[in-house]
UniProtKB/TrEMBL annotation:
Transmembrane parts of this sequence: none
Name of the protein in its database record: AraC family transcriptional regulator
Source organism per UniProt: Pendulispora rubella
Keywords carried by this UniProt record: DNA-binding, Transcription, Transcription regulation
Domain spans labelled HTH araC/xylS-type: 17-115
Length: 144
């Protein structure tokens, strides 16, 4: 009747963190489950189960979240167009990107850019140093 919860072993967690770092570093590229699993040293299906257990989402869901976070950052801080942002973060279709972005944020990428960009006018390198994370995250900053 109760949900069974299993802990992730320390060495397994470290391996999963390596794969998570790969996702964060290569979010703009085409990443397959096999590449992510290989980075962690697991078979694809074992990797999928362990990643979900450790982080509460699948590797694909995590990759999508990283991409949306980066898109929000780009749209808020740079003059990048929606199309440039779409391709920069690894999407191959502007329509798919816009639909997913709207679903996740409640605003279209263009609406997001128009509403948030005027509020965030800090040079990219200084934002992480001088803006408290809690404030930046309320404006749609990255989830890190």
């Amino acid at each position: 009747m109760g949900t069974e919860r299993r802990l992730v072993r320390t060495d397994t967690f470290r391996a999963l963190c390596r794969a998570r770092e790969l996702i964060q570093d290569a979010y703009g590229e085409t990443l397959t489950l096999g590449q992510m699993a290989k980075c962690a040293g697991f078979s694809p299906y074992h990797f999928l189960r362990e990643f979900n257990l450790a982080f509460g989402m699948t590797p694909r869901q995590y990759l999508t979240q990283v991409r949306i976070d980066r898109a929000k950052e780009m749209l808020a801080r740079s003059g990048a167009s929606v199309t440039d942002t779409c391709f920069e973060i690894g999407f191959s279709s502007v329509g798919s990107f816009s639909a997913l972005f709207s679903k996740r944020t409640g605003r279209s990428p263009l609406q997001y850019h128009r509403e948030i960009a005027p509020l965030v006018q800090v040079p990219a390198g200084l934002a992480r140093v001088y803006i408290p994370y809690c404030f930046f995250s309320q404006l749609g900053g990255p989830l890190e």
